[in-house]
TrEMBL record:
Natural source organism: Vitis rotundifolia
Membrane topology, as annotated: Single-pass type IV membrane protein
Designated name of the protein: Longin domain-containing protein
Lineage: Eukaryota, Viridiplantae, Streptophyta, Embryophyta, Tracheophyta
Cellular compartment(s): Endomembrane system
Xref: CDD domains: Longin (cd14824), R-SNARE (cd15843)
Chain ranges of the Longin domain: 10-114
Name of one Pfam family that matches: Longin
Domain of life from the UniProt record: Eukaryota
Keyword Membrane: yes
Length: 164
């Protein structure tokens, strides 16, 4: 995977970009910001394709994490990057100054962290892919377990209800 696979990232609160990083120039920054304005506020992951790039978003608890990647990279590495950034950002700023920070005020502090995470994901794609696969398997097992617990709960409550 080339150096240019992850090309731009930011963290925003609502529609206010708090920190961003890129070493490249192009219209991807304005496209990413335009998409940010239109994202649903619900916790979720979104990916949009445009001009050979993917615009990947992770929205959680009022914050949006974004990375623009070359389309050939796929989704796994950008989404893993977003999870890593969310974890790092939440550790540093959860319940703290991110809640009241103004636009771009965390660039100096968190911009270098975005760069670090981008570089790590570019330099270690096989590790990121393995980790993403393991997380997906854990989520799948967790889903099956939750279904089984619900079935047991229903059968137990039916055993005690006369008209079940």
């Amino acid at each position: 995977m080339g150096q240019q696979s992850l090309i731009y990232s930011f963290v925003a609160r609502g529609t206010v970009i708090l920190a961003e990083f890129t070493e490249f120039s192009g219209n991807f920054t304005s496209i990413a910001a335009q998409c940010l304005q239109k994202l649903p506020a619900t916790n979720n992951k979104f990916t949009y394709n445009c001009d050979g790039h993917t615009f990947n978003y992770l929205v959680e608890d009022g914050f949006t994490y974004c990375v623009v990647a070359v389309e050939a990279v796929g989704r796994q590495i950008p989404i893993a990057f977003l999870e890593r950034v969310k974890e790092d950002f939440t550790k540093r700023y959860g319940g703290g100054k991110a809640a009241t920070a103004v636009a771009n005020s965390l660039n100096k502090e968190f911009g270098p962290k975005l760069k670090e995470q981008m570089q790590y994901c570019v330099d270690h794609p096989e590790e990121i892919s393995k980790l993403a696969k393991v997380k997906a398997q854990v989520s799948e097992v967790k889903g099956v377990m939750m279904e089984n617990i619900e079935k047991v709960r229903l059968s137990v409550s039916c055993a005690f209800a006369p008209n079940c």
